[in-house]
Amino acid sequence: MKNEIKLSAMMFVQYIMLPVWFVPMLPYVESLPDGSTWAVWCGLVMGFGTFASPLLGMFADRFFNAERVLAACNFAVAAVLVFAFFAGSGGVLFALMLAAMCFYMPSWSLTAAIAMANAPKSRYPRIRVFGTLGWVASGAFSLCAAKFFGIDDFDSTRWIFACGSAASAAGGVLALFMPKTAPCQRGQPLSAVDALGLRALCLFKDRRFLAFSAVILLAMVPFQWYNVYCAAYLKESGFKYLTFTLNLGQVGEMFFMLAVGAIIAKFGYRGAMAIGLSALAFRNASFAVSSHFGIAAFDFGAILVHGLIFGLFIVGAQMYVAENVPERLRSQAQGLMNLMTAGIGVFASNIVFNFILGGASGGARNWTRAYLVAFALSVVGIAAALLLLKGRGDAAEKGDGR
Asked: pTM to 2 decimals?
């Protein structure tokens, strides 16, 4: 129980530090003199950052305790965001946010590896839900800044980076008090493949792992652009408190996250992925209706279902890795899954939707067309999950990790 409390606190702080600055980032970048030139690139920093995940996972597997690697990453993010506070151009800000993401994104796989190494895997969704609470709590920054410090329209100011830096420093201190998670391959021979954190690529020889990864990657295309563009969509739709409004999705996530384990146990990973993709289709259909007819209630409905989608895709993928990957590769494999979901998935999503949004006449963003495409891709994903993934006879459903 003591470890579970520590791990829950780790999740809370780790997931409070990102949305404070990244969720409202795009409108702020576009307000800078050269911001429109760099806005698209800034939207890709999360994807670029995940390429460091397998590499830092290798350090946690071979050289240093995972909690120490996590602490170092968080302190680095805090330092970089201090410089971002003073950045005056989109180009400089892009470089700084890229550096911050290279240290932050590996923390998602590191925290998952630390949690599942020090608590029963069946309790992971209960521990991970505190990350959702942290994400929700990040909305308090904008409200407190406006009410108590007089920072009007906080989400569109550079103060988002100051708050992100403070939260990251707190996360670095807290990581030092986490349960010791020693590297499982310390002292083992090291090849060039290992040094680059690429050993986990051998997992693709397993057809079940390959099929699961393909479905997850396909789902990321209509899923990930929500994290980058939804704040811009809401701002154009007349919403003011962007972080607070988007965090309503995390309020729902608190309840959905507790159900993830039960859904996977009952329906298996194939059924869970199909349910998640169905919820994703509902979300994009709701946004399409609202963007076309201007009915805000559909926006709120689309936001509230975010937790079910995130829980089944991201947390479900982390649980799949923990159950089906050899222990010696677990941190690297979590990093690889993080790379696919928040890295390659972000790039593919932005390539598709930057083209769609930028194709409207007069330079206006065609949100309705983009959401309809996302809906269609979600439906394709449902079919892929049902056809490619095995049923309840899969090792993942039995829980007999290899």
From this structure: 0.71
